Amino acid sequence: MGSDILQCQAEQGWGSKVIERLAKDLSQAFPDLKGFSARNIKYMRAFAEAWPITSGSPSIVQQPVAQIPWGHNLVLLSKLKTSEQRLWYARKTIEHGWSRNVLVHQIESGLMQREGRAISNFDQNLPNPQSELAQATLKDPYIFDFLSLGSEAHERDIEQALTRHITQFLLELGAGFAFVGRQVELNVGGDDFYLDLLFYHLKLRCYVVVELKTGDFKPEHAGH
């Protein structure tokens, strides 16, 4: 329907009033069917405009946007400007099974711009392709606005708040993280150490230790 409207607008100069009349006519002709409001028809037009089907191009059925609900597509159309951005978030939605609210949160928090940007030494200490996968799992920055902590919060305050909001914390970390525990005791060479937060990553198949620090990042924080 969206493609037909675009074609008629191009050939006959259809305007928004025609879409409103079309919505009214369709609702009268098919009273038992929903989805023919003027607003929804305009979204159909926007969808067809965003994903044109031309001769020799892949079918829209093969695109990630055809594998997510219509409500998710409306979010992509209204909140993102480019096909590259929409496809990226559509693929992530399929990969992680995001609800519409989660998709909105990820877009508004700028996940595409943050993912894989963290400072690390993975390329020096991990073999490929594990180093690339490990780098892709990290973001810069992480957004923990759900903690509602002031700027003077201490490391232990942050640790306690993160574990209280573990569901939101795991969502921000990304797919694959499983929470093991906090202040986990580790004995190395007879010395006891306590890990602030310990996770296991299902894709990397390794443990991930989170050491919380307040203040600016320093090179020695990266470890070896």
Task: Write up this protein.
- By secondary structure, this protein is an alpha+beta fold.
- It folds into three domains: 50 residues, no CATH class; 51 residues; 107 residues, no CATH class.
- The chain is built from eleven helices and three strands.
- The protein has a three-stranded antiparallel beta sheet with strand order 1-2-3, with helices on one face.
- A hairpin with a 2-residue loop joins β1 and β2.
- The longest helix has 14 residues.
- The mean pLDDT is 83.
Which key terms come to mind for this protein?
224 residues; alpha+beta; 3 domains; three-stranded antiparallel beta sheet; elongated
Would you kindly provide a brief summary of this structure?
With 224 residues, the chain is α+β, with helices and mostly antiparallel strands. It has helices at 2-12, 16-29, 38-50, 70-79, 83-96, 100-108, 111-114, 122-125, 130-137, 155-164, 166-173, and strands at 177-188, 191-201, 206-210. It contains 11 helices and 3 strands.
Q: What is the averaged pLDDT score?
A: 83
What is the distance, rounded to the nearest whole angstrom, between the alpha carbons of the first and last residues? 57 Å
Q: Please give the count of helices.
A: 11
Write down the secondary-structure element order. HHHHHHHHHHHEEE
Count of strand segments: 3
Radius of gyration (Å): 24 Å
Shape, principal axes of CA atoms: elongated
The helix content, as a percent range, equals 40-55%
**Strand arrangement, largest sheet?**
1-2-3
